[in-house]
Amino acid sequence: MFIGKREKRKVLYWLERRLHASPLIELALHKRVPVHKHSVWYYFGGISLLFLMVQIVTGILLMVYYVPELASAHASILKINSGVEFGWFIRSLHSWGANLMIAVVFIHFFSAYFMKAYRKPRELTWLTGVVLLVLCLGFGFTGYLLPWDEVSFFATKIGLDISSKVPVIGDIIATMLRGGTSIGQSTLSRFFTIHVSVLPILLMGLLSVHLAIVQAHGMSEPSDFTKQEDEEKKYEPFFPDFFFKDILVWILAGNLLFALTMLAPWGIGPEADPFAPAPIGIKPEWYFLAMFQFLKLVPPMIGPIEGELFGILVMTIFAGILAAVPFWDTGESKLKSDLATALGVITVLFMVIFSVWGAMS
Amino acid sequence: MSDEEIEIIDGDKKIGRATFVKTAVGGFALLWGGMTLYPVYRYLCPNGEEDASSKIASLDIGKVSDFPAGSGKNFKFGSTPALVIHTTQGDFHAFKAVCTHLGCTVQYRKEKNKIWCACHGGAYDPDSGKNVAGPPPKPLMALKVDIVNDRVIISNA
Ligand code: HEM
Ligand code: FES
Question: pLDDT tens across B29-84, in order?
Fold first, then answer.
């Protein structure tokens, strides 16, 4: 449709009088992105956002047919998979999307870590990011139970039993999540509620904060970029240059998701039977594999403390140190900076090696 | 007079008005918060009601001939998974099939002659339920088996 320049200006003026959005538009137009050899990592936050949108849309669509009730949950997923037109498609998008999203969020996390983007003044961006990662894992853990198949049942059982080993609060938390002492209808109801309402609200709230601070600070610049002479520093405007590249990357990521969905539609195992033995070769989702494998190796007792507890303690302390990195690697000490990098490399190596090992054993 | 000069005399201590208001507001906020949060907490606590079927003392699981020698079978004993094994020597043993490591349900594996937990590869001795390999820290909880009129009766040990 053709709108005259004059009318367009009138509409914009009308909107501006009501929204006062021009400072924001101004900000958006001046947003710029540093160009350097590590620039690719700037895309991963955006890809996470794309996958989140996919999860929200497909999740809402799944809720139309999914029934969070013990006797019907598994059957409702079977129905989605084979009785509802394109049900398999929506479900596979959600399941593959969940996995890709967690992978991308992990990449986003480690790229921020290695570029040292957590340093002043971005400590809160980092911390909100850490919590967002934890929320994503929470999504994965709670969503995994919903199809109520054999593996999901035992994965939840082990996960909750591990958390109940934590002194004092562990048992309370596990019982609250489980809704009792054994996994059953209460667990399914609680996990469903957490998965479809508690986590989405928390995630959206926190994500808004995360994105707002990112805009307030602009993109972080790695140290070899800031070291350059001012004339050598290259930037590109966010609008339209980076924005269009972002869109391109989204299309690529979307294509990957569609390809996986088409080539390997998500399956479902036999219905969970709480009284049947755990199936041979049972494993958690890949993003919990490294932890799983690590706990498997810890002997039952280490001195006076139980092996699990010891393992959880070690991992919690390690994760705590990583999460607190902005407060001990402030950029003033070369030694601490190198230490942070080394710790990150160790973490990545640990995760890769233990995951592969866990997958193979 | 400014706020800080107005004082409320409370024994020996003198409290400025600002402090008083802050404390009162804080106190009420806490009270009110507690008043709403406690019911929410209680609401979310599992109510511990177990259905009647979960509290049983003994259970008839079938004829002796249903359990060939050298085999094991999982069954439901009240609200817990359980396992009965008929050994090659002809003995019956029954255990709660709950792994003492992280609570997975164990099974009898004939080829290894072990009670086996698939979750982290824990193994137990099929005669005594003793933990013999892998992460489990304790033996399985034993159940009592009685053969009455050719029927296998399981009861709490
Ligand atoms: C970060 C975002 C999310 C992640 C990582 C995630 C993850 C998962 C996972 C792993 C499953 C099990 C999939 C399966 O085996 O089929 C699942 C199922 C489900 N999710 Fe999500 N989810 C997310 C967001 C949402 C949202 C926003 C909703 C709805 C508001 C939702 C609704 C559901 C429903 C109804 C199911 C059960 C159907 C099924 O299992 O296929 N999810 N989710
Ligand atoms: S739960 Fe049985 S070995 Fe871990």
Answer: 999 999 999 989 998 988 766 555 567 788 999 999 899 989 999 999 988 899 99
Q: Is B132 on the interface with A (CB under 8 A)?
A: no
Q: Is A280 on the interface with B (CB under 8 A)?
A: yes
Residues of B in Cβ contact (< 8 Å) with A282: 104, 118-119
Measured distance CA(B135)–CA(A13) in Å, rounded: 71
* Protein residue whose Cα sits closest to atom 41 of ligand 1: A91
Per-residue pLDDT, B1: 44
Report the pLDDT value the prediction gives residue B14, as an integer from 0 to 100.
Answer: 76
Nearest CA among A356, A353, A344, A322 for reference residue A111: A344
Extended strands (E) in chain B: 7-10, 13-16, 58-63, 71-77, 80-86, 92-96, 107-109, 114-117, 122-124, 131-133, 142-148, 151-156
Residues of A in contact with B48 (CB under 8 A): 180
Report the separation in Å between the CA atom of A163 and the middle of ligand 2, taken as the mean of its atom positions. Answer: 14
Q: What are A297-321's pLDDT values in tens digits?
A: 887 778 888 888 898 999 999 999 9
pLDDT band for position B135 (50/70/90)?
confident
**Minimal C-alpha gap between B103 and chain A (Å):** 7
**Confidence check: pLDDT of A55 > 90:** yes
**What distance in Å separates residue B60's CA from the closest CA in chain A?**
17
**Model confidence pLDDT, tens digit, residues A112-138:** 999 999 999 999 999 999 999 999 999
Residue B102 above 90 pLDDT?
no
Q: Which among A32, A34, A24, A46 is positioned nearest to A237, based on CA atoms?
A: A32
Kindly determine whether residue A175 and residue B44, on different chains, have CB atoms separated by under 8 Å: no
The fold for domain B52-156 equals: Rieske Iron-sulfur Protein (2.102.10)
Alpha-carbon distances, residue A224 vs A88, A113, A142, A331 (angstroms): 48, 15, 41, 13
How many interchain CB pairs under 8 A, A with B?
A: 72
Delimit the domains of chain B by residue range: 5-44, 52-156
Closest partner CB to B81 (pick from A179, A274, A299)? A274
- pLDDT of residue B6 exceeding 60: no
- Which domains does chain A show, CATH number per domain? 30-148+197-271 (1.20.810.10), 284-361 (no CATH)
Tokens of B79: 């609200």
Length of chain A: 361
Report chain B residues whose CB lies below 8 A from the CB of A176: 44-46
On average, the pLDDT of chain A sits at 93
**Residue B14 phi, psi (nearest 5):** -110, 130
Q: Which residue has the higher pLDDT, A345 or A165?
A: A345
ipTM of this complex: 0.78
Hey, is the C-beta of B78 within 8 angstroms of any chain A C-beta? Answer: no
